[in-house]
Amino acid sequence: xxxxxxxxxxxxxxxxxxxxxxxxxxxxxxxxxxxxxxxxxxxxxxxxxxxxxxxxxxxxxxxxxxxxxxxxxxxxxxxxxxxxxxxxxxxxxxxxxxxxxxxxxxxxxxxxxxxxxxxxxxxxxxxxxxxxxxxxxxxxxxxxxxxxxxxxxxxxxxxxxxxxxxxxxxxxxxxxxxxxxxxxxxxxxxxxxxxxxxxxxxxxxxxxxxxxxxxxxxxxxxxxxxxxxxxxxxxxxxxxxxxxxxxxxxxxxxxxxxxxxxxxxxxxxxxxxxxxxxxxxxxxxxxxxxxxxxxxxxxxxxxxxxxxxxxxxxxxxxxxxxxxxxxxxxxxxxxxxxxxxxxxxxxxxxxxxxxxxxxxxxxxxxxxxxxxxxxxxxxxxxxxxxxxxxxxxxxxxxxxxxxxxxxxxxxxxxxxxxxxxxxxxxxxxxxxxxxxxxxxxxxxxxxxxxxxxxxxxxxxxxxxxxxxxxxxxxxxxxxxxxxxxxxxxxxxxxxxxxxxxxxxxxxxxx
Length: 510
Ligand code: MLC
Ligand code: AMP
Description:
- α2 crosses α3.
- Among the domains are: 304-404, Luciferase, Domain 3 (Luciferase, domain 3), CATH 2.30.38.10; 409-505, ANL, C-terminal domain (GMP Synthetase, Chain A, domain 3, 2-Layer Sandwich), CATH 3.30.300.
- It has 15 helices and 25 strands.
- It is α/β, with parallel strands linked by helices.
- A hairpin with a 5-residue loop joins β1 and β2.
- The chain is globular and about 65 Å long.
- The strands form six sheets. The protein has a nine-stranded mixed beta sheet. A four-stranded parallel beta sheet has the order 4-3-5-6, with helices on both faces. It has a four-stranded antiparallel beta sheet with strand order 16-17-19-20, with no helix packed on it.
- Bound molecules: malonyl-coenzyme A and adenosine monophosphate (AMP).
- The site of malonyl-coenzyme A (MLC) has 22 residues, from α8 and β13.
């Protein structure tokens, strides 16, 4: 069998000089940390051997909710090497959310922070997970302690292109999260296309400032650097001044629009600091044209905007070379990606006509974990995936996203599904009904606002509702404001008119 294990391809791209620096990071005490390519190889081998020693079933899921660290990345690489399925979880998720993911994915191993071991292990053991290990961002915890006894040699487990490599949970429009199943073939094909399309060259150095539990930081950034044998300047958390300090020694940066907005607020952002940079890439949420042009003026660089999603990884990109990077567009379908825009009758739209974006390609996921009906609903009969994004293609082939047919808020690059938040609010005592809408926000691009109606006789307090939501939901999902009103606007069919609510609240954070 041909080896399609993604790790094998990444490992093959490591430079000959394994003692060269692969990652520069900073320890929790502020001390500099250097990892060589050999460290990445050995560290991931030891972790892979630890996982193998646990005698897990084929296709076992390794669920991971830990702070960002180089060791957390090694655990991802180890999971690939050992042939298991990586399931990253946002560090903001709280117990209700974690219970759902563990119950749904039934992971054989859960890795959490030492601080969270108490409540996470309780959920995991109750859900049938056999192994709960811990990993702190200061290299503490049982995972590394146990891996220290394992061999640092390991041959990546043979994998077919169609074998699962990762499951990424993305919330559903009904409020129930769905696990997008991505294969070794999905991830490697996309990484190879991007390496070529974005003109990665020897000597490139990536500033890694994104979280590593989503497509952008975990796949696009890490695969990009590793597949190019490129050093990463690793920031445990996005901090604008730290990015500026790293910039003179780097060539590539990737960020969600909020990161660019915050960097633009730094007086130190100028042409001089960015003069060695080759490429600034933005995605995960719409990049405002002001941000695009301000960035050009301040740094002399034109941001390259691209578009993707958990189910598909990257779909389109503005050109690196040989064409204009056009602000407000997400560029062209990547090589190998077929993209079409169709109207509600399933008919192809003409140039510049707006419709639903559908895609097909080697990067498109295998389906939603244990949800065959949901998977079938999201594909057309000729097997294009319906992205839920609404857009158009112009005569030159540039794709523009104009909105979404899915009821989704993208806040600072994180997806928030109103249905989930409304469900949580509606369960609170005294609440008759609620609607959550996204409104423009200068920092996060968009944020949620909740409009709530009380049951007859009940008195509700918006701040109290906010406080309750904060105690149960991941912080980025909590609306930035709760308004209590007498009733929700409805159309003649009785459907809540969210467009009216958006219009009424659009100036809240302007
Ligand atoms: C933090 N907060 C947010 C938020 N992030 N609120 C709304 N939206 C967000 N994204 C709130 C917290 O709830 C908290 O509120 C306060 O801000 C401070 O929290 P923090 O954790 O200190 O925030 P900060 O570190 O400043 O984080 C902001 C951020 C982060 C922009 C750096 O959100 C981030 O890293 N975003 C990137 C997300 C990403 O990687 N997306 C890629 C998805 S992949 P309070 O009230 O509790 O104080 C994908 C596919 C593709 O979409 O195409 O790439
Ligand atoms: P996720 O499910 O977190 O992967 O989010 C995917 C969604 O993010 C897509 O379906 C789009 O709606 C949105 N998205 C990603 N990149 C862009 C972009 N460049 N512009 C606008 N929206 C984007």
